[in-house]
Prior knowledge:
- By secondary structure, this protein is α/β, with parallel strands linked by helices.
- The chain has 13 helices and twelve strands.
- The chain has helices at 9-18, 46-53, 68-80, 92-103, 118-127, 141-147, 170-180, 192-195, 229-243, 249-280, 297-306, 323-332, 372-384, and strands at residues 85-89, 109-113, 133-137, 152-158, 183-187, 205-209, 223-227, 286-290, 313-318, 337-338, 348-350, 363-366.
- The strands form two sheets. A seven-stranded mixed β-sheet has the order 1-7-6-5-4-2-3, sandwiched between helices.
- Helix 1 (9-18) packs antiparallel against helix 3 (68-80) and helix 12 runs antiparallel to helix 13 (372-384).
- The mean pLDDT is 95.
Amino acid sequence: MAFDDNTSDAARDSEICTHAFEEHQRYEGAIAPPIYQTSLFTFPTLERFTEVMRDERSHFVYSRGLNPTVKLLEDKLAALERGEMAKAFASGMGAISATMMTLLDQGDHVLLVNQAYGPTRQLLEQMARFGVSFSETGGSRGEVEAAVRDNTRLIYIESPSSMRMALADLDGIAELARSRGILTAIDNTWATPLYQKPLTHGIDLTLHTLSKYIGGHSDLVGGVVVGRRELVAPIFEHGHQLLGAALSPHSAFLALRGLRTLPIRMRQHQANVLEVIRYLATQPSVTGLHHPCLATGEAAAWAERQLSGHAGLLSFEIVDPSYVRIAGFIDTLRVFRIGVSWGGYESLAISQRQPDDTGPALIRLAIGLEDVQSLLDDLERAFRTLQ
Length: 387
């Protein structure tokens, strides 16, 4: 796959999502690549089998390792992120777990930047049994520098984060980490590879849950890690192969299908979320609104430098954010459904507020692909319950 030096990122990404790495002549001219729904691959001679087994991770032997459908997805995702290699997993947590299990040793420290995904923190809490520690900090270079320890092995970032949409200074953190010999990784699910390319800002590894925008239809679970071959290959060997969180060929096919419409869907998610944000900004009951397009100060500079577009996830606070009021608001919604995850075609609403009025007093909305006026009408009806 070759591109002219003048090819824009958007045009290059569109070609990767739709046609790149696909060899239709091998598929009898089929426009959709086949699903290689097989557990194993056979060989014409024992000599060839013996030869292949010496380098199993470069050949199709057993679908826990390489599978042609999964490999096509990995090639596309690596190209989208401008990485050398990608490895797909059965879930986002499969990718995160394999990465941390491979990179971390007893005595290592992980620095989490911004509010980490809950199961990521739970994984690190479990890894404390094996002598791995972690702490948390904000997204500026200064905050990270102050929080780094002598034994910090990995700086793990969420930017934007998935509850408060907090941003981090990727260039500054990457530069600091390189100067200290520390690895960096980012959960890039919010932005997708279309709207943020952390590897081009010096981050070592980027991870996604394929269940969100990449899949786009809320019908698959998967994950991926992308980066330099020297980092991803050991994750493949020690994390993927030994932990066994292999992405199924059918799920890979669904993710490939999702990629074909990802650029178009992300444009619509962006258009819808900006309309919703404009509406929420007019509501007297809203006391705080969180989305990268609203960033101020140094965070606004990070957004300008790092993000080329905006996804449909946002959160906000209301006046007197009791559980009863938040539940009344969310339960009134009809177009927005109540459920975890995000990034699909459907709009969702959740809150982590608890009945005893503990927990974050945020309402999180995932803005889907419905007609935006239907979403605004639904929100208007819910806001009337707060008056």
